[in-house]
């Protein structure tokens, strides 16, 4: 359980997330994920990283129960910094990152996937940001890398999901396969990258990041500032308490 990393000896390093039951990652786990991805990219024997998860879904975001069980704002601040670190690690990893998305990818999962280089998904995968239903904001920066602008706004305001098939239509998901074939699909595209001269691919990753029209790190931190504002106003606690108690969004009152 937690974050593990394995290498196949042929240039592919696989980082696996395993936090049952839904891969809601605790604060420390986000930092560990960041460190693991960055370390893999620094290893000269790694040509490409696969980021995958065990269990029911790829990622359910931050561990809200941990946040609500902690006095003060320490857990909230740690979760925000941890997410920023993990999202940045995927983006800054010195080699391309292929994400293999199974089941649900929501909240913080969108930050990981939106900053990845290649996305493969199972045919039952869905992607979304339930942030407004939790009294928070964030990862619109990354969702906007997956869908067109107006659809991003609609999904963000309504907390609806988008399917892997829809993202494949938009070109943000490279391939959609049955869940049983997901790991093989990730390995296939990772193998194509790993076979290239890693010196060239590493410079290609850096070059693409440098010409990126969006500063993903600054944009996400701006979003987080509004999340902190909602927390200071007490709004976020109302929504998180309701979710922890009932598992449902707080009704508008």
TrEMBL record:
Q: Which Pfam families match?
A: ECH_1
Q: What are the transmembrane regions?
A: none
- Give the source's domain of life in one word: Bacteria
Gene3D superfamilies for this protein: 2-enoyl-CoA Hydratase, Chain A, domain 1
What keywords appear on the UniProt entry?
Answer: Lipid metabolism, Lyase
Family membership:
Belongs to the enoyl-CoA hydratase/isomerase family.
PANTHER family attached to this UniProt entry: (7AS)-7A-METHYL-1,5-DIOXO-2,3,5,6,7,7A-HEXAHYDRO-1H-INDENE-CARBOXYL-COA HYDROLASE (PTHR11941:SF169), ENOYL-COA HYDRATASE-RELATED (PTHR11941)
What name goes with this protein?
Answer: Enoyl-CoA hydratase family protein
């Amino acid at each position: 359980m937690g974050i593990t990393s394995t290498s196949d000896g042929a240039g592919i390093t696989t980082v696996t997330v395993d936090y049952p039951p839904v891969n809601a990652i605790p604060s420390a786990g986000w930092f560990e994920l960041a460190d693991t991805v960055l370390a893999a990219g620094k290893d000269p024997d790694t040509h490409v990283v696969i980021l995958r998860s065990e269990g029911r879904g790829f990622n359910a975001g931050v561990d809200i129960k941990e946040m609500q069980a902690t006095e003060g704002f320490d857990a909230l601040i740690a979760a925000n910094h941890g997410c920023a670190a993990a999202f940045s690690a995927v983006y800054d990893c010195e080699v391309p990152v292929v994400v293999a998305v199974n089941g649900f990818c929501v909240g913080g999962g969108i930050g990981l996937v939106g900053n990845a280089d290649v996305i493969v998904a199972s045919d039952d995968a869905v992607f979304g940001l339930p942030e407004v239903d939790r009294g928070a904001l964030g990862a619109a920066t990354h969702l906007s890398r997956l869908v067109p602008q107006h659809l991003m706004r609609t999904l963000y305001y309504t907390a609806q999901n988008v399917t892997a098939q829809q993202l494949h239509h938009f070109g943000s998901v490279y391939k959609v396969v049955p869940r049983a074939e997901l790991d093989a699909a990730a390995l296939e595209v990772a193998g194509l990258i790993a076979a290239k001269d890693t010196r060239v691919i590493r410079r290609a990753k850096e070059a693409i990041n440098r010409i990126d029209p969006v500063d993903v790190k600054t944009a996400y931190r701006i979003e987080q500032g509004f999340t902190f504002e909602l927390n200071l106003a007490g709004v976020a606690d109302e929504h998180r308490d309701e979710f922890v108690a009932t598992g449902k969004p707080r009704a508008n009152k």
